[in-house]
Amino acid sequence: MRFLSSVDMHCHPWMAMVILPLLLLLLAPLAAAETWPFCGDSGKFESNSTYEANLRHLSSTLPKKAASSSTSTTLFATDTHGNAPNIIFALALCRGDSNASACEGCLVTAFQDGQDNCPNSKDTTVYYNGNPCMLRFSNKNFLATTVNDKILVVPSMEMPLITSTRADFFRFLLFTLLNSTAESATDSSWMFATSRLDISSLPTLYCLMQCTPDLSTDDCADCFKPYYQLTLKYMDGRKGGQILGTRCSMRYEIYPLGDTMLRISELASAVPAINNTLPPVTVYPQSPVSQATIQEYHGM
Ligand SMILES: *[C@@H]1O[C@H](CO)[C@@H](O)[C@H](O)[C@H]1NC(C)=O
Ligand SMILES: *[C@@H]1O[C@H](CO)[C@@H](O)[C@H](O)[C@H]1NC(C)=O
Ligand SMILES: *[C@@H]1O[C@H](CO)[C@@H](O)[C@H](O)[C@H]1NC(C)=O
Ligand SMILES: *[C@@H]1O[C@H](CO)[C@@H](O)[C@H](O)[C@H]1NC(C)=O
Questions:
Q1: What are the protein's UniProt keywords (predicted)?
Q2: Which ligand is nearest to the CA of 49?
């Protein structure tokens, strides 16, 4: 196991306390991915209302529509249903290396999870740990722009990957990882890329980045721009993390995230200066070795 072999256990006796329960959990069945809902502030709809009926219609059509777009390997759909004031705008995206049946199932669940977590909310976004799919529906026409919204930052572990003496170098690695993966994702027709970076004595880093495939190359690159800064700000030195948005997402870990499409072999020449005008984000509580992290680890 790469994770174990790449960590110097002698220097970190506490690792045993972490890894032992982790190994035990590897034997447990894989639980469903943790749900990360965003309840919007667009008000509530009444039970038995036209809005509810329109939402029910979308929940039965949009997952199929996204899944059937797999002929073009995008697993993505947007739709609009109903008339003002009960019109609903919706967007659904599955992870780029998912398949039609897994995608449809994930989105059906997402509609249900959205209503369970944000009862009667007119504007709801649902993300999952590992981002197998994401869903947003709203009474506001968020489809009219490519603005990335509802950004969730989830640093995956409390424990640092490296000591402070190597922090500058780690920032270089992180920027290289994200920059190269973003270049690859924006070049791909379905706006998706996975990568690995193993040019140092640190553990190999794996990354996955994806935009909604309706974005242009430039829009996708713009969507990722604040992610470099957010990663350096919230995940510096950490073993992994995720940034989820309605238009693009990023995750890096020290274990593979599906089949690796790109092997990064060159370090970036410089890390751009920190831009302090970052978009508003929600940072998920940072718990040491959360259950979610362990489940994801098991799922690799
Ligand atoms: C919704 O409609 C069902 C079936 O017609 C009815 O039983 C229920 O009481 C209604 N709920 C509300 C809140 O109006
Ligand atoms: C689709 O993906 C799911 C989850 O990764 C997998 O269990 C299933 O076998 C896949 N189905 C096909 C047809 O490839
Ligand atoms: C990668 O970094 C270079 C140098 O900072 C920059 O010019 C380029 O736009 C970046 N690529 C992406 C996709 O962000
Ligand atoms: C900083 O970020 C904002 C918003 O993303 C952007 O408008 C601005 O041009 C950036 N400034 C620099 C110096 O990159």
A1: Repeat, Signal
A2: 1
